[in-house]
């Protein structure tokens, strides 16, 4: 089975999908702090060793390496990930995404990790004009505390390669959808609200555009980069599937047989990035990887998954989440957005 994969953030959305993809074929140790976004239920049935701990604590990271018992490659997902929360309070983002990544890099070097795959995002390129695509050497222009902290962690990971020779590979994925995504994010939030007959909050005019990738395609790209990527290199993992938020929202309503009157334009996100557009050419060329999902079909399957897993949705929408929902959406949904903010 080769080396053990130390998967940080393996109890979150993409991490748990990645563990399910490799479990049984690779030995897996998961290191996760189990924040509000981490849930052991996401890993049920996937063979792994679980270590509860914080990537920003060297002792916790060393315990995870000890649990691996042998050569290790790190696949680093753990992060604070929600843009709106980062606007509310940037500090946890800096602590986990920046300091935590540095701690992990240092312990990986100390323990002679074989490879270090740093999972990043297309959001580090910032907003792009229509028709413009960002290749891996494009200027980084993060606009919110989440994307700024991810850009910082990308630089630290690449610096560990240049200065210490740690075999680091960076991937930059586009917006993921699929099962087990925490329902604060756009797709599962809209599905959950539509199921309950509640309004769907659409920021501003809803004409913001994202490149969507199915989580399984993203995980296969991460595995391809781990196995075939060149140390010191960055690979965009793009779904190459651009959709406007309003179109995604309408698709969800139609799939669930709900009326468009549930769409509710609300006060926009400050500094909201209009469009992302990662260029997928390098990953296709060097990793022989391409996303396989067809968006409308895979989104319909995703909607069915949430519809059939209503109990999972109910359990993860815990006290902490309900507090966040009221803080973030309470006033927005009670008062319509002034026209100039749409
Ligand atoms: P998520 O929020 O669903 O999960 C994050 C996981 O990390 C949780 O299990 C959480 O408990 C854990 N975690 C948080 N802080 C930790 C800490 N200090 N120590 C240990 N564990 C900690 O996130 P996700 O959507 O699965 O994203 C995973 C990674 O992929 C992130 O690095 C994110 O930046 C990146 N990414 C996400 C997307 C997307 O669309 N979701 C796109 C591109 C890249
Ligand atoms: P999100 O899932 O937060 O991902 P990101 O901001 O990291 O791309 O949001 C996806 C898009 O959906 C983004 O343009 C913001 C928008 N959005 C809404 O319109 N309403 C919402 O309630 C949320 C959470 C997001």
General description of the model:
The protein has a domain at 4-177 and 212-237: NAD(P)-binding Rossmann-like Domain (Rossmann fold). With 342 residues, the protein is α/β, with parallel strands linked by helices. The protein contains twelve helices and twelve strands. It has helices at residues 13-22, 58-68, 83-88, 91-110, 145-164, 186-195, 215-228, 245-255, 281-287, 295-308, 310-316, 319-334; strands at residues 4-8, 28-32, 49-52, 72-76, 115-121, 168-173, 175-177, 200-203, 209-214, 234-237, 242-244, 263-266. The protein has a seven-stranded parallel β-sheet, sandwiched between helices. Strands 7-9-11 form a three-stranded mixed β-sheet. It has a two-stranded parallel sheet with strand order 8-12. Strand 1, helix 1 and strand 2 form a beta-alpha-beta unit. It is globular, with a radius of gyration of 19 Å. The model has no long low-confidence stretch (mean pLDDT 96). Bound molecules: nicotinamide-adenine-dinucleotide and thymidine-5'-diphosphate.
**Quick one: CATH superfamily of the domain at 4-177 and 212-237?**
NAD(P)-binding Rossmann-like Domain
Strand percentage, roughly? Answer: 15-25%
Helix content: 40-55%
* Termini separation: 53 Å
Structural class: alpha/beta
The CATH architecture assignment of the domain at 4-177 and 212-237 turns out to be 3-Layer(aba) Sandwich
Low-confidence stretches: none
* Biggest β-sheet: strands ordered side by side in the sheet: 3-2-1-4-5-6-10
Number of strands: 12
What count of helical segments does DSSP give? 12
Q: Report the CATH topology name of the domain at 4-177 and 212-237.
A: Rossmann fold
Major sheet description: 7 strands, parallel
Level-1 CATH class name of the domain at 4-177 and 212-237: Alpha Beta
State the order of secondary-structure elements, H for helix, E for strand. Answer: EHEEHEHHEHEEHEEHEEHEHHHH
